[in-house]
Design brief:
The protein has nine helices and 14 strands. The chain is of the alpha/beta class and about 270 residues long. It has a single domain, classed as Carbamate kinase (3-Layer(aba) Sandwich), CATH 3.40.1160. A hairpin with an 8-residue loop joins strand 10 and strand 11.
Length: about 270
């Protein structure tokens, strides 16, 4: 039986209350965990790398301390102390949310293992520069579900930064060659007429994206890692390199939608080469 590798992200807006700092949506987390467990039980050839965003846990602190921007070229002592204090704060908040995610996965009976990016990844100019994928590959080979998440990272040029789950997925896609990337959030997909939200774009090809046929909506929430426009740019960069890869942006707010996406049913917006 041929195995299929899928990279699945649970967006921060989906798993946290982004209007209330540091507030997980516990019922939604448990619902999503059980949908993932159902998909894996129904499709024994499916292998997952799971990622999640930071939502109301990481973004507020990251904006306050300008963590993604890194240190200035010649920081003063006060600037360095301020920056690294914020770096530690953002790390703590990302870790705190990951604990809620892992609790939900454990209670759903999933053999999930958290692999904290800060302990394995080094970046350069807000891109993964080095990442020892040995433990992650071993987890997949063992039938486990490795879990990564948006996290603070030590950066060779900026001192520190933040890498989003999409940033991490970009590196993983180039090295693990998944067939699909699923980005589950609150938005039903990419809208032609945001914020009216009456015309959903079901499919976007690489040529249409490059021609500017679709304009991504701005995020309604604080998102220091770029929001929808950054997601589209990154996904289509990968699709340009790997034409067999597809990405799907969809809402998992409706019960069952995540399971349907994992089962290849039509949900949200598909991004594809052709």
């Amino acid at each position: 039986m041929t195995t299929e590798l899928v990279l699945l992200k649970l967006g921060g807006s989906l798993i946290t209350d982004k209007e209330t700092p540091y507030t997980p949506r516990l019922e939604k987390l448990h619902e999503l965990a059980h949908e993932i467990a159902s998909a894996l039980a129904q499709m024994p050839n499916l292998h997952l790398v799971l990622g999640h965003g930071s939502g109301s846990f990481g973004h507020a602190a990251a904006r306050l301390y300008r963590t993604r921007e890194g240190l200035s070229p010649t920081p003063t002592g006060d600037e360095r102390r301020f920056y690294w204090k914020g770096f530690a704060e953002v790390w703590y908040r990302a870790w705190q949310l990951n604990r809620f995610v892992m609790d939900a996965l454990y209670q759903a009976g999933l053999p999930a293992i958290a692999l904290a990016p800060i302990s394995a990844v080094t970046s350069r100019e807000v891109r993964v520069w080095r990442w020892d994928l040995g433990p992650l590959r071993a987890a997949l080979d063992a039938g486990l579900v490795p879990v990564v998440y948006g996290d603070v990272i030590f950066d060779e040029e900026r001192g520190g930064t933040i890498l989003s789950t999409e940033d991490l997925f970009a590196y993983l896609a180039r090295h693990l060659r998944p067939r699909r990337i699923l980005l589950a959030g609150l938005e039903a997909g990419v809208w032609e007429d945001f914020p009216a939200r009456t015309r959903l774009v079901r499919r976007i090809t690489l040529d249409a994206y490059r021609a500017g046929a679709v304009r991504a909506q701005a995020s309604a929430w604080v998102d220091v890692t770029g929001g929808m426009a950054a997601k589209l740019e990154l996904m289509f960069a990968l699709i340009g390199e790997m034409p067999n890869l597809t990405a799907h942006i969809f809402s998992a707010e409706e019960s069952g939608n995540l399971l349907r996406a994992l089962r290849r049913e039509e949900v949200g917006t598909e991004l594809a080469a052709l």
